[in-house]
Amino acid sequence: MTSGALAAGAPAVLIAAVQICATADRKHNLACVREMVRSAAQQGAEVICLPEMWPFIGRDAAKVAGAETLAGPSVSAMRELAAQLGVWIFAGSFAEQSDEPGRVYNTAPVIDASGELVAVYRKLHLFDIDMTEGPTFLESATVRPGNELVVVDSPLGPAGLTVCYDLRFPLLYELLRQAGARVFMVPAAFTAHTGRAHWELLLRARAIEQQCWVVAIDQCGHHNRSRESFGHSMVVDPWGTVQASLSDQPGLLLAHLDGSRTERIRGELPAIEHRRPLGNC
User: Fold this and answer.
1) Is 123 a catalytic residue?
2) Is 116 one of the catalytic residues?
3) CATH annotation of 13-271
């Protein structure tokens, strides 16, 4: 798969990352995202990317009770907006209904410039941690894991879809690259505690290892009394250089993704071609 703007010789594409602090107020979250998406389109962005769980961050019981379908209000609103503005929207993720009582999917939809839903990824790795000096999460208590890799052809070329905690599992990104991905999408609500230590380091590592662009769109700030996200959304090139980034406040990141840089880096340092089987070592 080599179509799209990240193919060799194709022009750079202006993308936007929408960084917000979502809360339990669904109407406010949607209004904020709509305003920022429109602003990004007015500034020329062709592809607009949202963070993980942008429609709602609150109590787990409310998340499950308010779970939507792919035909629900959040995805429908983004489909309508994409068609109106003529832009692609990588629509972060939302809590999608599953057929298992009490558990939802953490689902990442992709919408093309005509408003069509062209890909759906359900988060594979669930965030179950209990840190002495940090947060405690048991995502698996209310979230059901997906079971499929997803690479979608887009204006950026083939894009590998991941969500937040997936970032810690390099084999996933290797498999996505093998499936043709030239850019990795990482919508997230990365905790402030783990983000300070690992966010940029992991993003740059995934970019360097697979020689792919990485677009990381994080939540930021205090969602409620017990939950805070790190922010610092960024775009990392295949050399591992941070090309653009935000702070820990809500904002809009704009960056050009240039496929010629991918080709040059892969040509000059063909590390993937140098891999050897290690099963007998």
Assistant:
1) yes
2) no
3) 3.60.110.10
What is the helix (H) or strand (E) element at residue 96, kind and residue range? strand 94-97
- Start-to-end CA span in the chain (Å): 33
* Domain spans of the chain, in order of start: 13-271
Cα–Cα distance, 165 to 188 (Å, whole number): 8
**Is 164 an annotated catalytic residue?**
yes
Question: How far apart are the C-alpha atoms of 142 and 207, rounded to whole Å?
Answer: 31
Question: What's the rounded Cα separation, in Å, for the pair 12 and 208?
Answer: 20
pLDDT band, residue 4 (cuts 50/70/90): very low
Catalytic, out of 21, 63, 68, 123: 123
Dihedral of the alpha carbons of 173, 174, 177, 178, in degrees to the nearest 10: -140
Q: Which of 32, 46, 49, 52 is catalytic?
A: 52
> Of 21, 32, 164, 212, which is the active-site residue?
164
pTM (global) more than 0.90: yes
